[in-house]
Amino acid sequence: MTGPSGTALVVVDLQNDFCATPTARARFPGDPAVLDAAVAGGIRAVETARRRGVEVVFVRFLGDTAHQGPSWRWRDRRLGKRPKCLEGSPGAEFHAVAPAEGERVFTKRAVFDAFLSEGFQAHLAEQGIGHLVFAGLFADVCVDSTARTAFQKGFHVTVLTECTTSLHLPYDTVLRFMRVLYGARTTTADDPGAWTTPEPIAGAGGGTRPEEAPCPSPLG
Can you identify the CATH homologous superfamily of domain 6-195? Predict the structure, then answer.
């Protein structure tokens, strides 16, 4: 038995406080050019998806203390973290990209996983989506959290390697982890296969074989 066959691009947290503000610059540990390249790649992925007629779904984060659970607040106090993407602030606005008419936006309120945002999974089911293509920030935080749940709920996972980067862990390690644990395809947005649902493997009960595509950094 095969599942839903539709594909959607999930654009994760391309917001000012993650992409461009002093807050974003201060917390990103690597070369700022890597972050800029990943953001630019995510914006191009939106354009590519629209040209291909692939549904684009935007996910945004709101970090207000009112949304935070006790453990989140405790962590922030302990580590000296300040809330980001406050509701109604410029930092919470999308950076250099905006949903087009008819494209849905789902809000994560002090959580990493888009499946914890109201209506996200229901929308995918309504649209017959069985394959999620990921772009946005960060590969080892919100992208991974959402991809992990997606895999466990039966969605195929593709990560566009020039359209994200990692915050805490080595990027190649994160991509390798996703390939091994989630069977994720890690490839680039110009790969036509990135936008198609993987075909079932004959005799394998409808499963798919993890891809071993190259994993370039956002800078190529």
Answer: Isochorismatase-like (3.40.50.850)
